[in-house]
């Protein structure tokens, strides 16, 4: 049963990779894959479900669509932030939270391009800046003694924002 499940998973991954390599998706998928923690399947999921990144006004609205923004409890002069809203796309939120774990202990060096991955220089530079920023952010939260799961969700939110920015650049809208 385990062997069959692994074969089924590999077959489905090949189908996703084949779809992601089509001209409609390839540029955006390849660009988002420049971020650590994002492989072909997760990049394809982000691109397929988000559609055009340009439909989101800004990175904050993309993170809100994913449910990765902090909830807020305000009354008069007091302003308190709580846990994430979880009011968005559950699948992509889980995908980004899992991807964010890659930044714990990761190096600041850029992710190598995979065979057949084509990304323009400006988008690659921006993605590399994102990797450095996310690694630094995770380290600073760990050094400050933040709870590991809280730090990871914060990195996942920022990772979502970098995915939006890189995806937007790939669309040529930025």
Tell me about this structure:
With 174 residues, the chain is mainly α. The protein is built from 7 helices and 2 strands, in the order ααααββααα. The protein has a two-stranded antiparallel ribbon. Strand 1 (70-75) and strand 2 form a beta hairpin. Helix 6 packs antiparallel against helix 7 (148-171).
Helix content: 55-70%
Number of separate strands:
2
Secondary-structure element pattern, one letter each: HHHHEEHHH
- Briefly note the structural class of the backbone: mainly alpha
Overall shape: globular
Beta-strand content: 5-15%
Radius of gyration: 17 Å
Major β-sheet strand ordering:
1-2
Uncertain segments of ≥5 residues (pLDDT<50)? none
Count of alpha and pi helical runs:
7
Distance N terminus to C terminus?
47 Å
Largest sheet: 2 strands, antiparallel
Q: What is the topological layout?
A:
Elements lengths: L1 H19 L2 H10 L7 H11 L8 H8 L3 E6 L2 E7 L5 H11 L20 H23 L4 H24 L3
Antiparallel strand pairs: 1-2
Helix pairs in contact: 2-3, 2-7, 4-7, 5-7, 6-7
Please sum up the structure shown.
The protein contains seven helices and two strands, in the order H-H-H-H-E-E-H-H-H. With 174 residues, the chain is mostly helical. It has a two-stranded antiparallel ribbon.
Task: Describe this protein with a few key phrases.
about 170 residues, mainly alpha, two-stranded antiparallel ribbon, about 60% helix, about 5% strand
């Amino acid at each position: 049963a385990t062997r069959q499940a692994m074969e089924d998973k590999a077959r489905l991954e090949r189908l996703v990779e084949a779809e992601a390599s089509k001209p409609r998706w390839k540029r955006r998928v390849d660009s988002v894959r420049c971020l650590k923690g994002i492989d072909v399947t997760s990049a394809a999921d982000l691109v397929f479900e988000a559609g055009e990144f340009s439909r989101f006004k800004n990175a904050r609205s993309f993170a809100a669509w994913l449910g990765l923004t902090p909830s807020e409890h305000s009354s008069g002069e007091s302003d308190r932030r709580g846990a994430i809203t979880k009011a968005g796309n559950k699948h992509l939120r889980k995908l980004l939270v899992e991807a964010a774990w890659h930044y714990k202990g990761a190096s600041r060096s850029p992710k190598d391009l995979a065979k057949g991955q084509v990304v323009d220089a400006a988008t690659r530079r921006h993605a590399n800046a994102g990797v450095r920023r996310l690694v630094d952010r995770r380290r600073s939260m760990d050094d400050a003694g933040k709870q590991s799961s809280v730090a990871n969700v914060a990195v996942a939110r920022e990772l979502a924002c970098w995915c939006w920015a890189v995806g937007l650049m790939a669309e040529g809208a930025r």
